[in-house]
Amino acid sequence: MSAGRRVGIVGVGCSKFGIRDDVTLQELAFEAVSEALSDASLTKDDIEMSVVGIAGTRSYELMPAVPINEYCGFAGRGPVRVEAACATGSAAVYTAYSSIASGMVDVAIAVGVEKMSEVDTPTSLAVGGRSGSYLWEFHQYGTTFPGYYAMHASAHMAEYGTTEEQMALVAVKNHRNAVHNKKAMFRKEISLEKALGLRYVAYPLRLFDCSAITDGSSAAILASEEKIRELGIDNAVWIEGVGFSSDTANMTRRESYTTLKATVKAGEMAYRMAGIDEPVKQLDVAAVHDCFTIAEIMAYEDLRFCRKGEGGKFVESGDSDFGGKLPVNTFGGLKAKGHPLGATGVAMFYEIVKQLRGEAGRLQADLKNHRGLTHNIGGTGHFGWVFVLGV
Amino acid sequence: MGDERFTIESRQFVLRHRIPATKTERYWKGLEEGKIYATVCRNCGAAFSPPQTDCSSCYTSDMEWVEIEGDGVVEALTQIHSIPQGFEFKGEPYTIAVARFGAFRVMGWFEGDETLSVGEKVRAITGRDETGVWKVYFERVGD
Q: Where's the ChsH2 C-terminal OB-fold domain (chain B) (predicted)?
């Protein structure tokens, strides 16, 4: 596999995440795009192609890419609309990346946006539950997105002795980090005791094991190496590794419920491209997909931050916290920052780019290798994306 | 955000799909006869649960319908407390499990009194829920 031209990230933007009933999809996307353009010191006219990532269905605009594109002033350039469930943002970045790497364009923007709060919670749960293999799962059994991850949690607990307490510790850590993230939905600490006392959403996952229904947007502007030199940009963050994979839609066709094969495969591919053998020693910081706390624990294992089955211990011993082996989800994770599906993957780029530029303030990880990772899953390992970024 | 927001309610939009089930009719009719069917490819032996009539492995379409029988082992489960639109009729949390029966895994509901555990042995039966949808139900072996 040839990676084509070298591609760098030259600007990132992110809206405030939360229940954003003050703005439409278009207005929300504009916030992130506007911030990304000023971050890159570019204007909208410098953008040759726009990619709009939105999972959709929960918002009133059913074909949202063109309305969003028009509102951001990109009419006539793109849009390519992509959807990969909760990994939509990574698919958007990849589309922009590959358009540049192939030589088709020199500058492209990936816009990730989602409004999940325009419908009520039971409707939102049904959209997630209908996103597996509808006729064989939701139609008969009323699956939900928390339910799918809960099934994995039940298997992980049975196989490796992972506990509810270990899962809750992921949420405690991520909330502690989000306090210092101005873009985060929940900027307050939670106690382990409180987390363990809350009701189940889908046994064995309690309320604080789950990311919330969130509205938000994010944007990343990518450019070719030649263009970056021509523009005199000196703080570009380079895409050094790309990995993608997927798994079956049907839960009954999975090989295992204690691992996400899409993570393992995407991770291997990105590590190979970036020349990473020992992730914990070669990365400074990682953003992993913690839509549910068990997902972060499985990600530690599947991305080889620790051995299989030791993900619970990894969080328990502080290995994924500041000063640990590898700080994970320094920005608060999806759990505390929020998880607006289409925005999440691009927002991970926003957070890791800030880290690698040394602009993360009180959430700054120590930079030794000047490399970071984003790991973005769609569904329950239905899609897997891993990127290695470096400066 | 907190303040009073000015919002507009959209026009109602009802979506209901007509789902083609001709190729898997045997499965759906089987549920009504108390049988749970899967398919096996006659050419390469690939097993499919839920059933399909084209082989994703060898790209032939010569399938044998096989009945899933005997005891299964629970591999994963959850109890849904936050109920999605469409399942309000349950009025209470419901348990979904995935159990393995040899080469096949099956999803089903468990409606026993106590909680089910991963690793337990179950039997699969069929039944109809309050809305008339046929499906698989698990029963503990020995109950």
A: 65-124
